[in-house]
């Protein structure tokens, strides 16, 4: 019996969720720990335009999204483990090299390549969940994974702030290097191969094209995947403007990490509650209800921003409800997009990951670049993206809301 088969037998559900969440958290870490340091990076590397500093995040996200189309077919052919460790190694090397970046352009290039490596963690994290679970149980596991994953935005800006108090911004990349190395070692020792041999697909143009065709021609899966693109676009537009909104508009200063962490904490709570509620209510009912709440809050924020300055307490309260609804909607819609595609889970995770990260990053960057010192551009982004999500849901469900869908079988789990 190999070490890998022993791992497969003793890897408990809680440890599986924690490990998958840690892999996904490397992506959140690469974004959120940067936020307090953006002004210092810009100043050190001669970037005078405040909005251009956002590109440190955008460059990473574009690389992260683009490479998923490559990792998807590769992981469906060679399994989940080997591509994962290639990606983590690339992430670690680029994070370390970024500490020595002499120019802003080189820093952006390294961030882009770091995102390429991080793509493996996202594709494989979603794939191994679908390999092992299906239906409402998959949605429950996905929610718990996102709950742990959301712990990173809770602490990351604060960690970044502490690092900046103890040394230069370069230390943030050292921190990422060490943490990603630790997660990689954990996965190497404990994560079994979850792709069953009979589900492995040949790495040829015809087979890859056929896998992509299966994904994009499944109406329910594709349009729920597209929902994730618009949701992430609105969220990314908020994230890259967070420092400008909380510090620039509301003057929170050193309390910015606390305000950001509180939102992330509420989203983690939302995912925890979803993990149990979804088993009784179902993915569709929860996600559809959440989107109606999301749109209501977004519309109120937009109206208030157009009529004058919005008191912080009112904006923050509406934002908290909106982000709670976002957590329920995004988690369940991710599950709905993967549910019919267990036989091509890696390719499906890649296609949706590409759509959501590249599409979301482009949309979010456009929203962020419209920042004008008010809440209005972000509020418009929330409303427009939310409306597009509702249109996609209606197309996926043939014009009906709050239905109950078909259950699918879980793909067999490989134990080598």
TrEMBL record:
GO terms for cellular component: plasma membrane. It is found in: Cell inner membrane; Cell membrane. The keyword Acetylation does not apply. The chain crosses the membrane at residues 54-72, 84-106, 112-129, 141-163, 169-191, 221-246, 252-274, 286-306, 312-329, 341-367, 379-396. InterPro entries: Efflux_drug-R_Bcr/CmlA (IPR004812), MFS (IPR011701), MFS_dom (IPR020846), MFS_trans_sf (IPR036259). It is a multi-pass membrane protein. PROSITE patterns: MFS. PANTHER family: MAJOR FACILITATOR SUPERFAMILY, POLYAMINE TRANSPORTER 2-RELATED. This is Bcr/CflA family efflux transporter. It comes from Devosia nanyangense. The lineage of its organism: Bacteria, Pseudomonadati, Pseudomonadota, Alphaproteobacteria, Hyphomicrobiales.
């Amino acid at each position: 019996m190999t070490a890998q088969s022993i791992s497969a037998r003793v890897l408990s559900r809680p440890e599986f969720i924690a490990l998958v969440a840690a892999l996904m958290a490397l992506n959140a870490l690469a974004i959120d720990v940067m936020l307090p340091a953006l002004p210092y990076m810009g100043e050190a590397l001669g970037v005078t335009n405040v909005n251009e500093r956002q590109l440190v995040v955008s460059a990473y996200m574009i690389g992260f999204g683009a490479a998923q189309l490559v990792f998807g077919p590769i992981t469906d052919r060679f399994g989940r483990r080997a591509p994962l460790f290639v990606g983590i190694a690339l992430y670690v090397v680029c994070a370390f090299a970024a500490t020595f970046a002499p120019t802003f352009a080189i820093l952006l290039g390294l961030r882009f390549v770091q995102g390429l490596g991080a793509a493996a963690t996202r594709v494989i994290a979603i794939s191994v969940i679908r390999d092992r679970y299906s239906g409402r149980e998959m949605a429950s596991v996905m929610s718990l994974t996102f709950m742990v994953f959301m712990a990173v935005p809770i602490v990351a800006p604060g960690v970044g702030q502490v690092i900046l108090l103890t040394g230069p911004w370069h230390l943030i990349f050292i921190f990422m290097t060490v943490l990603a190395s630790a997660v990689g070692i954990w996965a190497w020792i404990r994560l079994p191969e979850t792709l069953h041999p009979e589900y492995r697909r040949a790495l040829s143009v015809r087979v890859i094209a056929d896998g992509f065709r299966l994904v994009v021609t499944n109406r329910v899966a594709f349009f729920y995947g597209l929902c994730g693109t618009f949701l992430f676009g609105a969220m990314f537009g908020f994230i890259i403007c967070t420092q400008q909104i909380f510090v620039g508009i509301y003057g929170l200063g050193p309390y910015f990490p606390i305000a950001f962490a509180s939102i992330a904490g509420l989203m983690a709570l939302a995912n925890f509650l979803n993990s149990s509620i979804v088993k009784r209510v179902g993915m569709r009912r929860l996600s559809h209800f959440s989107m109606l709440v999301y749109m209501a809050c977004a519309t109120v924020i937009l109206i208030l921003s157009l009529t004058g300055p919005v008191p912080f307490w009112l904006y923050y309260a509406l934002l908290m409800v909106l982000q709670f609804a976002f957590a329920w909607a995004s988690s369940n819609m991710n599950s709905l997009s993967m549910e019919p595609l267990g036989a091509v889970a890696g390719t499906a995770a890649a296609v949706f990951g590409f759509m959501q990260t590249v599409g979301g990053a482009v949309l979010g960057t456009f929203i962020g670049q419209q920042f004008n010192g008010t809440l209005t551009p972000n509020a418009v982004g929330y409303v427009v993206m939310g409306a597009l999500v509702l249109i996609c849901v209606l197309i996926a469900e043939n014009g009906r809301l709050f239905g109950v869908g078909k259950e699918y079988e879980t793909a067999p789990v490989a134990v080598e």
